[in-house]
Amino acid sequence: MREHRTGLVLVGVVSVVATILGVAQPLMMQRMIDAASSGAENPWVWWLVGVTLGEGVLRGAQSFVLQRTGEAFVGGLRRSLIARVLRLPMAAYSATPKGEWISRLGADTSQVRTIVTSGLFELVSAVLMFGAAVVLMVTLDPVLFSLTLGGVVLGGVGITFMGARMRRTSEVTQAEVARMTSAADRALSSVVLIRASAATEQQVELVTRYARRAEASGVRMARIQAWVQPVMSLCIQGAFLLVLAVGGLRVASGVLTVGELMAFIMYLFLLVMPVTQAMSAYTQIQLGLASYDRIRQVLHMPAERTGGSTDVVGPTEPEPAVVLEDVHFGYGDEPVLRGVSLTVPVGSRTAVVGPSGAGKSTVLALLEGFMDPDAGVVRSLGHDLRDVDLDSYRRHVAYVEQGAPALGGTLAGNLRLVRTDATDEDLRRVLGAVGLDGLIARQDAGLDLDLGDNGSVLSGGERQRLAWARVLLQDPQLLLFDEPTSSVDSATESLLGLALDEVSRGRTTVIVAHRLSTVVTADQIVVLENGRVLDVGTHTELVERCALYRTFAEHQLLV
Ligand SMILES: Nc1ncnc2c1ncn2[C@@H]1O[C@H](COP(=O)(O)OP(=O)(O)OP(=O)(O)O)[C@@H](O)[C@H]1O
């Protein structure tokens, strides 16, 4: 909020001046009526017109400055949120569904915006107007004022009580909306699987269940809000009727002039207006605060560590390129790696094989620095990964996930992910090297070809080759590759094998391998079983001495 101080101070100053002009009007009205009834000269008409116009102009300016400040505040919040959400440790993304992050960025930030734009605007005006009206009413007639006060106090107590309930209910509503967004997001991300499993109805039912819960929570909120309005009206109208009746008697008995009673009634309106304004502002602020809490939870989550003491500058070729020393790791309490040690010489190709769930992908994730080991040391490119600046390290490491997912967007955007300064010529060269020149000609879009959501317009093999093109562009020292388990036809397989040879030539490569053709050409093969290294050797050595490997090899791997 500190950086928005100038805007808020300006709003405060304009509000004070506008309020002075607002509360001056009944006094001028009183003078005008009393002067008219005594037949004296009456300049008050013009004063009244001028002051009313002046107040209008200032209220407009107040609204604009406040809205602008609100946008700046929420803009800043959104920027911080985006920066944090995209920098969380990898474990956070598996722990929380994507929709949760998205709903905080969308629905919650919009809700917070109302705190500043309407909530604060109304509250600032209301408090000022209320204070001024109270002072002038007490001066005009303390007896009539005490009647008014009763109604206002009753209303205030009611609002405070209901406001707290509203905030709690709003939190529930926002959480239900987030669950619905997550469920819809999950369903949309797996639409092919769902359609093919004839599970559309089931998913529609699931998402609508959350939508119904959000609706029910919204209705609970409407119920509370439905009480607010009548309670307030009753208090205010009661006070108004009482002022009219008692005020009339006091004019008849000569304690008050007609002008004074009129002025008092105008102040009563000025008092009522801020009270209803404050009521809606309070509601808005309670809803906004509930959202702000949800946003703060994310902002307080620790980001993935940045700025380790060592920058990886490369290309250096420390020998060996990768060393794991007695590495233990578990995602939760369950251990996944139980003392893995291995050494990867510079420029070599190491294949990691083993049964499903043995921890092969986890080894790659540790080498990417996605998680730190619970015990033991991961040294890569000459550094203990706990000490390095991860961004600088990852610039020298390419990681190709299973299925080689592409980013939505253009072909060029997908490639420039790893090198923003690459020229079009560079992009064409690497696409040519992996046999993807055909894509450039497709739909005459060239490098601007839209790859669809997650690269959905590409085939699996094309996505794989696009990943290779990215590796060539990045020119990393270390290549980590999680080979897809899905079987591809033999023509594609040999094409991919050639592309892999091309890309991995001269680079240290660690491959989680599922194909015999990949494994036999490896310089060393690490057999992983149940989080432990069972054996390390070449294909020929392992076939001779490792029963588990022999079984895999006989079944053409695909483990
Ligand atoms: N993000 C995660 N959170 C919790 N558990 C996980 C996570 N990722 C993997 N696991 C678990 O850790 C174990 C090892 O998983 P990993 O993906 O490393 O195995 P893998 O050998 O690569 O298996 P596959 O060949 O089937 O891909 C598995 O039991 C898996 O269920």
Description:
With 559 residues, the chain is α/β, with parallel strands linked by helices. It has two domains: 2-299, ABC transporter transmembrane region fold (Up-down Bundle), CATH 1.20.1560; 322-554, P-loop containing nucleotide triphosphate hydrolases (Rossmann fold). The chain contains 18 helices and ten strands. A six-stranded mixed β-sheet has the order 6-7-8-3-9-10, with helices on both faces. Strands 2-1-4-5 form a four-stranded antiparallel β-sheet, with helices on one face. The protein is elongated, with a radius of gyration of 35 Å. Adenosine-5'-triphosphate is lined by residues 94, 331, 336, 354, 356-362, 512.
Quick description:
The protein has helices spanning 5-38, 44-85, 90-95, 98-140, 142-189, 191-196, 200-252, 258-299, 360-367, 390-394, 411-416, 424-433, 437-441, 460-474, 490-504, 516-520, 539-545, 547-554, and strands at residues 322-330, 335-344, 349-353, 375-380, 383-384, 397-400, 478-482, 508-512, 524-529, 532-537. The protein is α/β, with parallel strands linked by helices.
